[in-house]
Specification:
- This protein is mostly helical.
- Helix content is 65%, strand content 10%.
- The chain has a three-stranded antiparallel β-sheet with strand order 1-3-2.
- Helix 4 packs across helix 7 and helix 5 crosses helix 6.
- It starts with a helix and ends with a helix.
Length: 162
């Protein structure tokens, strides 16, 4: 019996959740997503960071300086929330804001040297958290799992909602 199956069993050993529900991919993905989100959120909090901090730092490191609007599109962070995230990152000296020479009405955000160091630390934290999350899978299964999830997400990102 797996841990997930054991969690669905009351003390008397009878399954609480019908198989038709317990074995649905959508439900399994949802439950794993919830557990993954909790693990990542708590792990990053231990490093004095949040998921959005990591997303912004990774975007700036991988794609270069950007406006707040561009960062919002790259990371999926709502534009209204981006200001708060950038205020936090600026307060920790992880990013720098400077007026855009082409348009003085907007700022260009750049990752700072301290931000690059923090990103490397957070990469290590996330690597360890992903090892914990994917512990039951061997390396080949982990690679396959990520490929399959990516394929599903790519497919559903291209397909318009009905």
């Amino acid at each position: 019996m797996t841990g997930a199956e054991a969690a669905d069993m009351p003390a008397d050993g009878a399954s609480r959740t019908p198989d038709r529900l317990r074995l649905r991919a959508s439900r399994l993905l949802s439950q794993l997503s919830t557990r993954s989100d909790r693990l990542i959120t708590e792990g990053l909090a231990g490093a004095d960071a949040r998921k959005w901090h990591y997303a912004v730092l990774a975007s700036l490191q991988d794609h270069g300086p950007a406006s707040q609007a561009t960062l919002s599109r790259r990371t999926g962070i709502y534009r209204s929330d981006m200001v708060g995230v950038l205020n936090e990152l600026t307060g920790h000296h992880l990013v720098e804001r400077a007026p855009d020479p082409a348009d003085q009405r907007r700022n260009i955000i750049t990752v700072s040297p301290e931000g690059r160091r923090q990103l490397r630390r957070l990469d290590k934290v996330l690597d360890d958290l992903h090892d914990e999350l994917l512990a039951p899978l061997d390396p080949a299964e982990r690679d396959q799992f990520v490929r399959l999830l990516t394929r599903l997400l790519d497919h559903h990102s291209r397909t318009p909602d009905p």
